[in-house]
Automatic annotation (TrEMBL):
Organism: Halomonas dongshanensis
Its EC number(s): 3.5.1.2
HAMAP family: Glutaminase
Protein encoded by which gene: glsA
Protein's UniProt name: Glutaminase
This protein's record includes keyword Lyase: no
Length: 304
């Protein structure tokens, strides 16, 4: 496995087309696009990594997997009253479907859906309390107390929140959000601004590869059925309007973020995290998808 990760890292170093770093969040525009990292945590307790695998980066939408897990723990199937579970086929920040669909976002991974999920988690609590809960969950599943929010990234997103604020106000007008819009957004932006390395992310995703059990501690995080359902949502919706392309090329459930990270789950095998900040047209890491494609081809790990 180590040889494979080294080979992938060497192959990615040769790539000249590296995509474009997200700049609609100005704080992310400073990140050096030459970086690449990959880490694998296996269900039998092995850890492998290569490249910049210990460098923390903004996990952005990958955090939506963790907040979905928390929300399902709190509300169970009640969550689905306000969030759908169908692929959207539209960009991650699109508003169009909301108007025709009663303000109910198609799935928990598009921005509108993730905003509805965090509103559901808040349950009348202040943003600070909800954020403490999200952070302690992520630290628990990653088994790493060092994980933190990047306050600069969160502030940068809050200052440029027009698009997400539109989604939130629109949903609120349909009665889909219970809390004050700016409080929900502030919580959502901090959640997206969690900084983690590939090694930490792979560790955090391991419970989804092992029927819901956090392998290192042996403690159950979610039921086997819930782990399978979260994986199915990642497969169908984790890459927005490029989810079909990702399933075709990689064949594993995956969740991307505009920080350039992707968390992929190989059920029964392990969790793989990749990071390369340059994005493709749909906002997914260009080299991250390429690297995972190479990984899946060489390991033959696939859910199909
Ligand atoms: O709300 C946003 O636009 C960002 N905080 C998250 C978007 C994102 O990561 C989309 N992923 N590829």
């Amino acid at each position: 496995m180590q040889t494979l990760l080294d080979d992938i890292t060497a192959a990615m170093a040769k790539e000249t087309e590296r995509g474009k770093v997200a700049d609609y969040i100005p704080e992310l525009a400073h990140v050096d696009p030459q970086q690449f990292g990959i880490a694998l945590a296996t269900v039998d307790g092995q850890h492998y990594s290569a490249g910049s695998a210990t460098t923390p980066f903004s996990i952005q939408s990958i955090s939506k997997v963790f907040t979905l897990t928390i929300a399902l723990g709190k509300l169970g199937d009640g969550l689905w009253a306000n969030v759908g579970r169908e692929p959207s086929g539209d960009p991650f920040n699109s508003i169009v479907q909301l108007e025709h669909e009663g303000g109910k976002p198609r799935n928990p991974f598009i921005n509108a859906g993730a905003i509805a999920v965090v509103d559901a988690i808040m349950m009348g609590h202040a943003p600070k309390e909800t954020l403490a809960e999200i952070l302690s969950f992520v630290r628990y599943i990653a088994d790493d107390e060092r994980i933190c929010f990047d306050a600069k990234v969160a502030a940068s997103e809050m200052a440029h929140r027009d698009r997400n604020a539109s989604l939130a106000h629109f949903m609120k007008a349909f009665g889909r959000l219970r809390h004050d819009v700016d409080k929900v957004l502030g919580t959502y932006f901090h959640q997206c601004a969690i900084a983690m390395s590939c090694e930490q992310l792979a560790h955090a995703g391991l419970f989804l590869a092992s029927d819901g059990v956090n392998k290192p501690s042996g403690l159950r995080v979610v039921s086997p059925q819930r782990a399978r359902r979260i994986n199915s949502l990642m497969m169908m919706c984790g890459h927005y309007d490029a989810s079909g392309e990702f399933a075709f090329r990689v064949g594993l459930p995956g969740k991307s973020g505009v920080g350039g990270g992707i968390l992929a789950i190989a059920p029964g095998h392990g969790a793989i995290a990749v990071w390369s900040p340059g994005l493709d047209e749909q906002g997914n890491s260009l080299l991250g998808v390429k690297a995972l494609e190479m990984f899946a081809q060489r390991t033959q790990w696939s859910v199909f």
